Amino acid sequence: MKDIKMPLTEHLSDLRKRIIISLIAVLTGFVAAFIYSEELFRFLTIPLKYDISFSTSSPFALMVEKKVKIPPLVFLAPAEAFWMHLKISMITGLIISLPVIFLQLWKFVSPGLLHKEKKYVIPFVIIATTFFLIGAAYCFFLVLPFAMGFLLTYKTESMTPMLSIGKYVDFCLKFILAFGAIFELPIAIIFSTRMGIVTPKTLAKNRKYAIILAFVVAAILTPTPDAFNQTLMAVPIIVLYEVGILVSRIFVRRGVA
User: Fold this and answer.
1) Got the DSSP string for 224-241?
2) Nearest 10 degrees: CA dihedral of 227, 229, 234, 235?
3) What is the crossing angle of helices 185-194 and 227-254, to 10°?
4) 8 and 129 belong to one structural domain
5) Residues of the domain holding 32
6) CB 206: neighbour CB atoms within 10 A?
7) Is the pTM higher than 0.70?
8) What's the rounded mean pLDDT across residues 223-248?
C-alpha cells in the first residue's frame, strides 16, 4: 500500500531538505579532501605516467611506466594551480558523499514507493555507490592510460608536449565523472520500469538501437577518435544495459516494479 500523497509544498520542502543535507555532505568531504589535495593530485597523474600491461599469467595486469617521458605539468595562470586543488577536492568530496546523496535521493522518492519496496534502501545506496566507483576506477585505470598513450604519441614526433595542470585535471575529472554516471545505467533502467516509463520487454526489443546509441555516446564522450578507446566505453554501456534489463525483469516477476 502506498503512502498518502504529499502536497506540492511538502514535496518542495522535502526536496530542499534533501539538497541541503547533500550539500553539507559534499562540503564536509571537500574540506577533508582539500587537506590531502596534493596527494590526490599526484594520484591523478598516474594515467599520465603509467600504462596498463596485460599478461596471460598472474598478475594479469600491471602498471608499467610509459616509454615516452612526459615533461612536468605546468600552470599558465597565477591562480591555475590553486583552482586545480579546489576542483580535485570538490570532486573528491562529491564522490566521498555519494552514499549520503543516494540516501537522500531514496528518501525523496520513498513516499511514492510501496511498503515492501522501501526495504531496499540499503542495497540501493550500496549498489549505486559501488557502480559509480567501479565506473570511475574503470576509467582511471584502463581508459585514461590508453587515451593518454594515444594522444601524447599521435603524430608528435616533431613536437614536445607541455601540459597545463588545469587542462589535464579538467580532462581527467570530466571522464571519471562521465564513466561513473554511465555505470548507474542499470539503476536508471530499474527506476524507469518501476515508474512505468518503459518495460523490460520494450528494452529488450530495442536492444539493437541501444547498441548503436552506445557507440554514438562513446564516440562523443571518449577522448580519442580511435575505435579501440570508443569500444572501451561502448562495451560497458551495452553490458550495463543488459544487466538493467535482467534485474528489472526479476523485479517485475517478484511484483516489485
Assistant:
1) S-SHHHHHHHHHHHHHHH
2) 100
3) 30
4) yes
5) 1-145+165-174
6) 13
7) yes
8) 82
